[in-house]
């Protein structure tokens, strides 16, 4: 412990103060001396130049030139030496006496040998050196090795890095000496500033590793440039502020009584930067400045979020793209706003240009709010569309594999957003232009403003406070149950998707009204007032109006949950409390929105600190925690100042080593982690074959279970955004963290970006079987507090449906709260059975072998290559000895105890004993083939089945590596065959290599299917005695279930593709355990508890773990910072850190969820308004209009009969049509019956059946054949032209359901049927019918109530007609 502390002080504290120099006792004397003299030179050289020579730019130029030459020489030599180590030859020589082989040495080597004559008796040791070529033909002998060189100097792998380091060192020298010449430093501060210069330059040669701000273990090449880059920026800013302050060229302005950009203000900022530069050693010691790329990302993200109203970003490229996009839009809007302000404003007149500006502002803000900050999403959509076009041009037979449906769904969601914006943005611009030009925002003042503020406050209070509180598990921490409960709340086990409740619809509609009506009206009202005021007084606020309007609109579109608080405070504070402080409402609202975002951060930080250090619930994880607790009390004031500082700069406030002492870390983006430590599943697709067979990589539980978190991520990607908009997770903002807890799944969901209709998140899955500390915290978040009856030290009980005093008090002192207890997601239920207990008895193993043999026979008979195998000469020649009457296979692997066809008289398996047991099964399987073959006792099929069954059982014995009858070898061999490790060692089985499909498509699936049949045997032991039942069961399992090894990539693809059932045999070797488990997965709906965690608690604990493990090098696996603390969930949060800091079993990539894929939200808000949907709506409206006109133009007709042209004869009175050509019903193509149906019972949509063929005689046109997508019923309607016949002619009925349509009309109908997704659908049904009324038979359409009633009659008539048709 003492040596580790000394190492931290030497390599961490002292090296951070000096820029990297420290004395390392483990290194050579030369290395330590070189570092010391190098540091002294960099420190003393500028100090002596400043003290000895008169100040001038020439001295600064000479200093920077010397530094450039010095660094260039060192970098060149270092780079050449590393290149020599990479490519150079190693020359070896032996230190020995002059022997026969010593005469070949050169002169220098001979002298060295003569000097070492006293060591003749010692063993000769090889000595190596490298040749360092100085000039052609001239080289130096270098006895240095690479490790010694790395200890001496840092390595720069590329030439560009070396050039950049030399340029940075020169800039540090020039800018630093320039500030010395300006006279900013006096006395001892000159030496301090020279020390800062030396530390920045020295870090380019030998940096601090690891740095206090380094996010990774090992050497971090980016952190090397942090000090010089920050120093150059600081020097440039000092020089700029000094020049601006002395010149007075900037025009000062006042805001809230503070004068900005005055001379005094600029010089004050300059002095602050000077102090900041002098404090560089301390700043880098505490790690208050991040590495350069993180700083750039944070800076751009904060500017875009707080100034332009953007969303959080996911990478430095994303932050740059988002900021450039916002700046371009602001520049476009600035031109229109400037022109509008310069235009004349009347008392009741709004310039047209300003109305244009308002329309563009709202439309562009809406579009920006619906787009993700990540440009790779749009690029992926473009690439995906291009790949589809290329695939359509070059059609090839696709490989047989399970397709992942999610990428196509996500690409469709993005394209749907773009298509919708193509319609909505112009529409919103036109509407906004009309409203603004109507002068409503001028004529109704000031009453309109007050009404809008009150309306926004009331709607916001109901939407974002009252409804979420009533839906919480513990409303206001007083009630014991939620007031507004979901339908699943009282269910013990959820069996269906979550039902849409009335209060969820209310919540969604209130949000819609708030986002698209109230806040746009508030912003446009304030913009009009501001522009009118600016136009009368001064005209330099056009840029501010553009930026403020865009920021407020984008924020209201993306995150309206906290806007009502900001708006109400701004109104009350500046209109009623302190009106003399107010500038204008737009300025007040803009700056209050920035201030309130920081105030929310401060509130969360203070809650975290007070909860964490509360003395009545403190949990000491180590002796240091007990020691630090009393010392943290006197520093509470400093802690409060740190909280304010960290809230302003968005930095985490982390506990040191998990104790009660808090320090401020460096600023981080909302994403938090600077590196992407996304876990990668280990399976057969990314490991070598030899490794798979010998060591079985990825066999641990964590790697195998990570796929379930990946599937959970997919489920959340499909539904998270819609569920958030329905209020199922309560209130949420950017950066919030939630924990999903189920029976075995515990995942932390980090919400990163929130847009208008999209959410970007990251999921971190914890271990299934966690540590003791994790289990205690899981119990804390899953146990209820309703039964607590304590009040202080007694138990008087509590009121009905209320919490007790102790429970209510305890819930208020937690850094988390239960947001929902029955959150439903689609997932897999996992059941694992111990294979040893299921195969312990010989009889059970015999059943497995029997099913193994029958499965092989089944796959032989089902194979399309069976005829080829039966005619293959190589296979038949190898199986010919089996036809002998005395043939017996007496392999030692066969056993009387487990082989049902074992002949104890022959001590093996004979063809006759095999046929006695399995011949009936072979014959039955053969009879189920389309073209059965000969299946007698001596037929080739029986011989092939006999040979394959013998081979399969022998392969099982070979894989077991043991001839004993014990269970462990049997399970080992079964698992080897299950994962496909077939080792053919017997010469009698080498015939199988004639076609490897015999192993891949017969024996391998046979052993897997036998395990499933063995599982089913326990539920119905005698059911599979019937061959038909067994055959149908195997066929059903083939179609509905995947049986595979978990290391096979098909397993992962099947889970991600939502395969209904899966089965696998898992071999677990963990912590000395060696067991086999049969894993059974069934897709169903899972119930989760949603726990909302204080986001500052998560950020602070994550930052503390990173500092402790990377900088302080605490590698203790039982360190105090990961011990359980139920009030903060310390163990669960710390274990969810990115690897290797934490130990989650799965960390997802940044994943974006779109609201368009949520069917329940679409049923509330309707589908998107896109060109395609408008087109389909127009077509359906035209069809309805045709029906109405047809009904009105014929006497006695009605709209319900308009499919028949509106005549007096409908399908109920004229069920058949006369034709001169009849076709047998058997020759008609059969309707295709699909198996997709909606979850909720509702009227069934009728879809067009496009499988009819044929022609009708002259005078008869088309009849439409319809089929239900669920029941497959044929329903028929007469066309309008059929009514041209005289009603007195009674047409004879058809002989069956034969009615035909011309191909052209069928194609047209099929084209329309694929586009029936009308606007504003009230249900989740796909609009597929030719006429709109057939899709929503229970919905009031364009024709009103009468149409609905008549439609019900028509559907009933059709059902009657269908029942008649089915009789035929």
TrEMBL record:
Bilayer topology term: Multi-pass membrane protein
Listed transmembrane segments: 36-53, 59-77, 163-185, 222-241, 253-269, 275-300, 320-342, 348-368, 422-444, 450-467
Similarity section: Belongs to the pecanex family.
InterPro entries the record matches: Pecanex (IPR039797), Pecanex_C (IPR007735)
Any one of the GO CC terms: membrane
Gene of this entry: LOC116064944
Keywords: Membrane, Transmembrane, Transmembrane helix
A Pfam family of this chain: Pecanex_C
Start-end of Polar residues biased regions: 1209-1237
Major location category of this protein: membrane
Protein name from the UniProt record: Pecanex-like protein
Source organism (scientific name): Sander lucioperca
All copies of domain Pecanex C-terminal, residue ranges: 936-1159
Compartment list: Membrane
Region (Disordered) location: 1203-1245
